[in-house]
Amino acid sequence: MSTIKRVYIYKGYERFWHWTQAFLILFLAITGFEIHGSLSLFGFEQAVNLHNKAAWALIILIIFTIFWHFTTGEWRQYLPTTQNLSAQIDYYITGIFRNAPHPTRKTLISKLNPLQRLVYLGLKILFIPVMVVSGLLYMFYRYPKDGAIESLGLTDLHTIAYLHTLGAYVLLAFVLVHVYLITTGHTVTSNLKAMITGWEELEEPENEKVDETNM
After folding, report:
1. Does residue 155 lie in a domain region?
2. Residue 110, Cβ density class (10 Å: 0-12 exposed, 13-18 middle, ≥19 buried)
3. How many CA atoms are closer than 13 Å to the CA of 194, on its beta-carbon side?
4. In a domain, 168, yes or no
5. What pLDDT, in 10s, does the model give residues 105-128?
6. Count of domains for the chain
7. 185-194, long-range: CB within 8 Å, 24+ apart, which pairs?
8. In a 3-state reduction of DSSP, which class is residue 82?
9. pLDDT tens by residue, 53-75
10. Does 210 map to a domain?
11. b (16+ CB within 10 A) / e for 136-174
12. Is residue 214 part of a domain?
């Protein structure tokens, strides 16, 4: 048997960096598309200025968040696993529409399902670093001279610009999928409420005791 227990699963900083990161990514996308000429909101010069400031804010947030993950041990949440991975994929594709039971159970020490772990890990060690590095290269080598770009093995900024833009589309796709996944909790709004308040109702077997002292 299992019981439903209300658990404080998302700490204050965890919620802060989650929402701040989401806002900065969306703001960077808006100003970035204006720089590309797809939108017209702030004007080109102001869009560049705002884009650069938001980029620095995101970099600072990333540094503090990396420190937080390692000092709290939350980095373990992203350790990849293939256990129940195929079942999780099947649940998102068809199972959820058949009202099938969720193949994994969220706990304090395992907040992410196997698919989320792989996606978030890839985001943190691949796409975010690509966006940061390509953005900094584009920012500081906007007007290459004295062979600065060539010393990095690049002849112009086209490759950097294309890479940065591709990464932006990947991040936007992630945000859209993330919005969909928010609705896959116990209720349509339960995951959203949890990330706002920190509290979530979790299913807990009666004979299982979760040690929260180290979290």
Report:
1. yes
2. middle
3. 21
4. yes
5. 888 888 899 999 999 999 999 889
6. 1
7. 194/9, 194/10
8. coil
9. 999 999 999 999 999 999 999 99
10. no
11. ebbeebeebeeeebeeeeeeebeebeebbeebbebbbeb
12. no
Containing structural domain, residue 134:
2-205
CA–CA separation, 203 vs 169, rounded Å? 36
β-partners of residue 7 are 200
We report the CATH number of the domain holding residue 129 as: 1.20.950.20
The one-letter code for the residue type at 154 is L
Alpha helix stretches (DSSP H) within the chain:
12-35, 44-72, 85-93, 114-122, 128-140, 158-182, 190-197
Q: What is the CA radius of gyration of the chain?
A: 20
pLDDT tens for 156-187 read 677 888 889 898 899 888 888 888 888 877 78
